[in-house]
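The freezer alarm interrupted the setup, so I double-checked each line after restarting. Inputs confirmed:
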Amino acid sequence: MAKTFEESLDQLEAIVRKLEDGDLPLEESLELFEKGVKLSRDCKERLVRAERRIEVLMKESNGELKLEEIADED
Amino acid sequence: MDNPLLAALFEEDERRPVTVSELNSEVKAVLERSFAQVWVEGEITNFHAAASGHWYFSLTDGSALIKAACFKGQNFRIRFRPSDGLHVRVRGRLAVYEPRGEMQIVVESLEPVGEGALAVAFEQIKTKLAREGLFDESLKRPLPQFPRKVGIVTSRTGAALQDILTVLKRRARSVNVVVIPTLVQGEFAAEQIAAGIATANEFNTGRPENEKIHVLIVGRGGGSAEDLWAFNEEVVARAVRASKIPVISAVGHEVDFTIADLAADLRAPTPSAAAEIVARAENEVLQLLEHRSVQLRRSIGNALLSARADVQSLAMAPIFVEFPARLRELRYRADELMMRSEDVLGKTLRQRLESLRGVTVRLSPVALGAKLGENKRRLGLLEQRASTAVVDAPRRGTQRLEKAMAQLDALSPLRVLHRGYSITQRPDGQIIRDAADVQAGDPIRVKLEKGNIEATVTAATK
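Predicted 3D structure, all chains:
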């Protein structure tokens, strides 16, 4: 998933706009539709299925950044 | 009595003037003992901040004046910067500078009269940074539409972090969190907060967009004005402004307003509210996705409807509608012709038979005896031909008709398709008759007797 979430959203919006403008051959419309459905499903999965990570970012005395994951305790 | 001053007064024998040093020393001892604690109110004049870090000024009530000094070791605690004309209350002690015989108040604390010191300090910093344009609306950046990762610059053990995590847990399951722990009160807090903001930005450097911190929450939970002071310091405001990551300030409670709030891209009234703002983004995106889904389905529905309408109008095309009608008409005409041909042939035949019979009767049997045989034979032949003609004519007619119908039938596009031929069209329905009209890669539609095949030209041979 190289695309960022926002890129996916933008792409989805472009597809919707293209479809709504109409005048596309049916085959192309169907293709776009399938692509759009897949994108929106992917986006939603990324929202709903995502597991939150909580990390602590610290700058060491030598100037290096240290990232450390901590538990998302209740 | 070893006090030389008193001795000079009472012991006439040993009377001698005291030295200036002795006098000043004695005055110093007396004054500094008597005025070890002074609390004085007045207006500042001649304020001067020396390069050494000490402050020098005078206090006046209009008719009297006293000098004052506030040394570096004390003045760092004073949040605001004194200036001429400011009405202040000063706590300190009286000090005498022996070499010059001058006295001054050594200031330990200094507080504006009326407004609190912090309020004055706040106004001063605000005025200064506003003049620099640090709070300009034009500098405010929009928050990312959908932050995937939120950075939180606050105390790792403070209430603010817990509040934020609680809200995010409930409302925004997909948002990742990076905590950048700092002190949030005390002498070093402001520097740490500023450094924390810088660290978050450094973390983003060179990272792919997906992994970056998309928004920063900078704040702490509620506390006294003094507790919250770090968020009023210039260094924090500058770090907020220098941050490439948009910043939401979230300091204390609703009523607490800080310089950091003014510098931030967005002020949240509390840390929880900051988390709500981030969470709202997730909710909005979910709604947006839902909306897009509906739009997708609606537009494909429309496309399908219009395609169906196209197919229907194609089915109503003259060729499909008129051909069967024409066929029926031809059939009627053929039937009619056949009936008529039967009539005509039958009548002609009967007439000829009649006239033959007439001829036969008229001819004498003797004279024509010989001829009769001949005629009989011819008649027989004629009869045979006639009956053949009567029988054959309709049959031939029918055959021709069937042939014509078969030819017509063969011309029907449906028939052609039935025979295994197909019609090749462009996606727009135009029929392709010439291989030169297409190129490799063109999408084509092949119409069969039953259904269509969508295909792509791999090669076109001319």
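Quick read of the result. Chain B is about 50% helix and 20% strand.
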